[in-house]
Fold these 4 entries.
Entry 1:
Amino acid sequence: MPLEEPVAVARALARHGFNADREAVTLLANAPAPGAAIENAIDAAPPGTTRLTAADVRPAIEATTPETSGRGSGATAGAGADSEASADSGVDSVPDSPPEPTVDSEADSVADSAVDPATDSDTDPVADSDTDPATDPASDSGTGIADRPDTTDAPVAGNRGAASVDGGTATADSSRAATADSGNGATDGGSGGSGSTTASDSGPPVDAQEGTGAPHPPAPSVSSETADDSPPESDSEPENSGTAPVETKGSSAGERDPSSRSIDISGDITGHSTGTGRYEDFVAVFRDRYERLSRHLKGRVNHRSTDALGGAGGGGEAGLVGMVAEINSTKSGHWMLDLEDPRGTFPCLVMKDKEIADHVNELLLDEVIAVEGSVSGDGSILFVDDLHFPDVPRTYRPNTADRPVQAALISDVHVGSQEFLADAWSRFADWLHTEEAAQVEYLCIAGDMVEGVGIYPDQDEELDIADIYDQYEAFAEYLKEVPGDVEIIMIPGNHDAVRLAEPQPGFDDDLREIMSAHDPRIVGNPATVTIEGVNVLMYHGVSLDEVIAELPDEKASYDEPHLPMYQLLKKRHVAPQFGGHTRLAPEEKDYLVMDEVPDVFHTGHVHKFGYGKYRNVLAVNTGCWQAQTAFQKSVNIDPDTAYAPVVDLHRLDKPDPMAIYDFN
Ligand SMILES: [Fe+2]
């Protein structure tokens, strides 16, 4: 890769332990003798400096310019042999593949996805779902807020051997084609129809699998939960869409004002973990979950506690806010829900002919809901007439940034895997140095920086780097290709070297040190990152496996990973069900509750790209940077690779706040 490519300059600097702002990189790339200019800039860097600015590199470039007089002449010896200098700089000889990121706008696929599969009025789930909840392997988990005898699953320490699942489905090739043709109709394989054609093939993943999914290729699609969520308009392609990136000449970098930036973190477990895994800790965290989620529900029903419902002698209308402790179907096809509150458990019957029966098959154990209806004469059962989720208010409107500024969302980089897409990553990093990306001032990475070790059976046969620390060293090098003036925020995933149980704290000091050159903001999983007033809920997404396994395909599938994200928003909890794939570390509070409605919900993990709006919340699952592994091939997983959705934080309230760049 010639040094005129910004990413090659960034890589050359990285080999000397330096990172640089976009403007500095651009200046170096455009220098008459980039190699010599790099050498000079490194030599002249102030002691202790690891990030070069434009001010740092300008004198170095002048010193290598033949026209300059005096002191420059010495350096021109290097300039005259710039290609040699390039070699000296250790620049990779990556085949020169011109970066041609294509642009897709959310709007493009909306036209093909007018029907929202997550709409409340879906097909009869009772008829569709013949699953007997009583056989649910997770059904023994109960809730624990009143009395939970079973704590044997108490996962606290990071047992990576029993890692959960990274799923993945559609074919990258198909998605790329769809994106490339994104002007019209390219997404006809997209959401609704296509999503259901082969979804039945997607048997739920099991422990120690790296994923699962259906072998069909949905193009990225958008759907909105309600009709009032206006789909993006089709005239929304950003400038330069579909063209090769335009290298910045340095002017755009000068227009960025770092003083306008702000990042606030909330809901981060890092440094606050107190759980010991005792029974009392589990009771405490479930009670906290109940208390906080019930606040969203008690105003909607006339709540009576479980002991009051049974003790009043029966009869009359009543409501109950409870945690789902058990779901069973009756011989007649009705549903019996056991709801639990701090006073006990009460049976609630949902008749199959009720409209609300459609919602029963989207219930997960341990989530908090409200029901209302009539109590039987003997006070033994509640006949449910209505059912409520904590949910996102229908009137919700997202916060926006005060200025035009963008955030790129990615996840699942998987450095260390033989299938890590280094060239695609470099095309992405190179693009970040261009004028087209001038407004991209934030990069959010939602977990799985590295491939990890011992994550699934025989994983070592697919590793390019066998040592976990070496994997992070390599990841740090790739991170240095990102412009130094891009703020990076990252959370861990299930492949990363932190405890597996959620909430996961951010990386420890050793790993932070390895990744320190770019000074990323490292937070826990999950965490809410407020970027210039916009709340981005970052969650790696392990619970998506569980939601997809438990719910019918039309409500949650690997083909459309934003649909299970909608379910999590509806439940206002990122991992409601305890006792299955998702491991929970009990803390003094439930960090997995969504107290506030996020403006953007960003997940990864399933290696599928999907996005949409749920009641004006932008939900994005961001695919991966790892091609299909042998293991994934053996279980028919086709990941969506090398997409970089870019969210315009200033226009988040508009129909088309996101553009999609394809670096395949
Ligand atoms: Fe992953």
Entry 2:
Amino acid sequence: MINDLAKYIEGANIPVRTTDGKVVKRIYFNNAATTLVLRPVMKKVNANVPLIAYIDAPGPLGKRITMKYEDVRDVVINFVGADASKDTVIYPKNSTDGINLLSDLFYQEDPDQVIITTAMEHMANYLPFTTRFETAVVGVTKEGDLDLDDLENKLNMYKGRVKLVTVTGASNVTGITPPIYKISKLVHKYGAKILVDAVQLVQHRPFDMKPHYDDEHIDFVVFSAHKCYTPFEGGALVGPYDFFCKYKPYLEGAGITNFISSEKVIYSDPPKRYEAGYPDIFGIIAMGETIKFIQNVGIDNISKYEKMLYRYMKKKLKNIPKVIMYAQDSDLINIPYIAFNVRGMYHTDVANYLAYEHGIEVGAGTAGADIYVQSLLGISPQEAYEKYIGGKNPGIVRISMGMYNNVGEINRFINALKKL
Ligand SMILES: Cc1ncc(COP(=O)(O)O)c(C=O)c1O
């Protein structure tokens, strides 16, 4: 079954016309940006369309849709190994929204604290902190891994002032998966909490928050459904219920209060307190269904299969002399992404050539991880700025595969690249 998941995917292998008029099957290697969509998920979503009602609306259909929406919280709890008696699941619009929310709450807790983030992060897990707090940024090694000695130095340097360390569970550029449990142990030793940005992790690898008493426990986790084969907004921010009880909403509006008068506002308990405005009913139903699909296939099976794809792709790319791959000496590449450049060519030209002339879609640019990409390219901030001023932002080409890609697609991609 794992070899043939494309049959469950909308738009996989559809015919597309190339610049020279040939019709070829579409190949989608840009899953880190957003994935194609699971057909069974859409079927479930569509079945709910005629039965739509507002959350908490009176009547059986209101009750039904409310239950469907609320039940997804348990699906998420199970998916990330959270503790239903201690954790809560908030539905942000996406991970960016969830991380901004968390940043706001830590700011409410103490605006003078120091937050540690890393040079490997997507900007969604960087700017929400660097723009609000005094931050320390953990560097990366020449292999492209996180520098854990630097993390410990920073924890030491800011001892007593660091309350949160935020780190990616998997790089959206190189596919490196930092050792999150080793990191959480270290972070807890210094009395801080850890947020894992699992946006690129949960669809590729088993993930477990571990029990609260465990020093490897992950305090907060966030992910987005649209990277897990749904077409909608919607995601999850999971963390301790007691923590979320302490703060005011980040977004004000209706649906987040128990009582309001012109004199008094009493906020609802979490998670409702943090879900102002129209609830993303279909996005959340889709998230629940996609998680169940992934669990049915088996995340271990997905991981094994994708590792095979990654190794095959890497081997083939290594044989093309003009391809420069980044961070390929890391031992921690566990998701099927590869960042590369073609010697003498600008990254977007390579990506456009693949898309227009071969129907193969890949990413190009900085993938939202500007600082990491600059470090992989060995470019200083000043050099990066000069390139930007000159109209040529530095960047890479990124292949990001998913559970429905296959070896035949890799062969076609390699042949296309060889023709450059
Ligand atoms: C590692 C990582 N974190 C966060 C995000 C932000 O996700 P979203 O755009 O769904 O909020 C991305 C998006 O690519 C990402 O790759």
Entry 3:
Amino acid sequence: MQIGLQNALSEKKYQLENFFQLRTLNFIERKGTYVQWTVVYVSDLSNVINEIKHQCHITHARNHLGLDDKGGFLKFCLNVTMDCDSLEQPPVKKKVTIGRERFKDSGVKKVFVIGIVPDIKENYHNVSQLILVAGISSIQFSLGMDIKIANIICWLMAHSSKHPCCWCEVSNDYDINETVIPRRRTLGRICELTTAYKRDVQAAAAAAQKMSPMPQDKMNCINMPLFNLADDLEVMDLAPPKELHLMLCVTTKLYDALSDGMKDDGDDSKRIESEHIIKKGYRGGSMEGSKCTALLKKAMDLEKELLDKYKIRHYGPALQYVPWKKKGHR
Ligand SMILES: [Zn+2]
């Protein structure tokens, strides 16, 4: 707990109260029936962002929206951060004092909830209700969310489908040696494929066909986009993969390969353990961020001192390409 945080929070408790409203909407419950819930939401998002910019002394803002269903609530969250790319000079470093000043604008302690509803399932209908009421089409933003919600928001079918990726049209049996790179998804193409799919379904119903059209023939696009954004906007740009997840996943894979390659040499294989880089046995066997960073910091040393002895030397340079936040770099 930071010194002064409690007082700072009490002081600011009701500062944004007037920006919030309530509205009762229909949502779909787990059993498939409709249920009414009251949503708490920000009625004018642009105004709230202006207020946050004013209070946090942010001149050039970047808005990042998050959608999640953790803690029994489906909610939209907002981070307003300084858009350093649009500044001519890097921002002056804030002098760290107490309470709120110690926290990053992009961190969880500076998240603003802009729309929240309790106890509902994350599906296309429910998410679309929250998107509409939160009025997010009035601002420029990037999106962050877990992959299941990303597929809902990208109007695609679930991860068990033939084309499960929200960023590209890769099929689930794609061979890594194939030379054709899967096409990246754009909002316009999702719209086009969904229209074609719905047209096929209607035609099949009119002709009383026994076999319904397969969503996989239309890259599993089954619902229309809800955001009114440019057709050529790639999903990759709208909702980029989370930096931390990319680092964790790639580093864990490389760590596994390293460990496998060195497992017959007792002394060397213990080297990584002795540096306190130990893989945690939870979350599907993934390493924590701090452990990944510890391994990545040693990538050059590992390449020079250790990997020469094995046929796995290429993992050294590979580790050096993994993106992670080095001190002094953005
Ligand atoms: Zn993909």
Entry 4:
Amino acid sequence: MAALKETATYEDLKASDEAHQMHGFGHPLMQKGPRQLVVFESGDGAMLKDVIGKEYLDAMAGITVAHLGHARKDLAQVAFEQRNLTKNNAIKVCERLSGLAAQAFPENMTGSRVYLTAGGGEGIEAAYHLALRNSFFRNYYPGSTFIPASMQPELSDYGWKRWMEGHDKSVYASNSHRMFSNIDPPHELFMDKSKMKEGENLGQAAARQLEKGILQENPETVAAFVFEPVQGDGGAVDMHRDFFPLAQKICKKHGVLMIADEIMAFAKTGHWAGMELYGVCPDILVISKGLTSGYLPMGAVIYTNDIWKTAFNNPSTKLMMSDVWQHDYTWSGHPVCAVVALKNLDRIENEGLIMKCAGRGRTFLEVLKKKLEGLHVVQQVRGTGVMLGVDLISVIATDIEQKVLLEYGVILRANTNKHCLLLTPPYVMTDEQFERVADALYKVLSSWATLAESAISKSRQH
Ligand SMILES: Cc1ncc(COP(=O)(O)O)c(C=O)c1O
């Protein structure tokens, strides 16, 4: 096939895509099959345009990254102007993030340390490097590199589980060689109620599961509890307010670190850190996505000064190889990414966007609830800041995502479990634009309800 020209048509691009590109979480059948390929060409604010000139409302902010919206000249300009390769910007980002963490949690995050990465999963790997055995929630998406993929029961075939099984299935199955275990999220739709004791609320039940899990594994071998404060891919799932204070006590008691995966939640919940919702400071925060509003890749691991002092507390000044943290990435602290992060943080801070985001989120949630609650296929409409979820009664989210995209030009996302639609609109989405998003969803979901009803009544007639 000849190389693509600047003037390539949609058909040329589709053919080339089918021939050459491997899509993440994809399969060749998905590229050829009914899922139509959309190729975006430009964007502005909350709008995107594809190569055939069709416009879309982006209620996902890219892959939940573009907090400030698309086509921000100020962010592109600072990247363009950053021509030298000094590390000053990385230093400034670390100081800035350490300051933001201290502002959110003065008692524990003052003097916090920051390690920069090029993305979220890399951050989880880095945080995980402080630990060997972890507990975490079901329904959680930590990333798709080896260690994060191993943490998901549904996808663990891709990581540790498959590797161990390759050696010896019985070794994997035995408790002593398991690397991860998980508990139910303290949320009414995701907690297995049969595991709850009488008189216990969701937060208390999950905390009890956590402690039971730590004790079962042997606390001395459990390094960390990893969780999202508000689950993103899980479908904007926030946690029962009693849970984290109890979890913190349990983790402290057993010497287990708390790692908050804030990769999705950073600057989306009406706070810088999602954990501010619960007033609980984790030991390690991992952020990414909104750190640069998606203009360039960057993530960060922020951890308490206590960990720093404990992990690198050398009695002598002579360093052995084993004293050094054996961890780094080529793109950590890249100066162009770092300068974009600084400009993005400036904009969010100077324009009071964290507070505004809380307000935008409340308005969006009201609109969604008004339009969608009561529809047959809708189980729950929920939201925290600009993380919004529409939980469905069955696993039809991918079909809904496609219909809304292709028929109404609205971008939202089916979660991995296909039972929920996730919306993370950029701060710049207007009320009128969000009304259009909610209208499109209403039209597709209400026609789905009618179809479902007719299918049921048909089967009853038989
Ligand atoms: C909560 C959470 N953790 C981790 C990741 C993985 O981040 P990355 O894709 O940058 O590796 C994601 C990505 O969506 C995420 O939402």
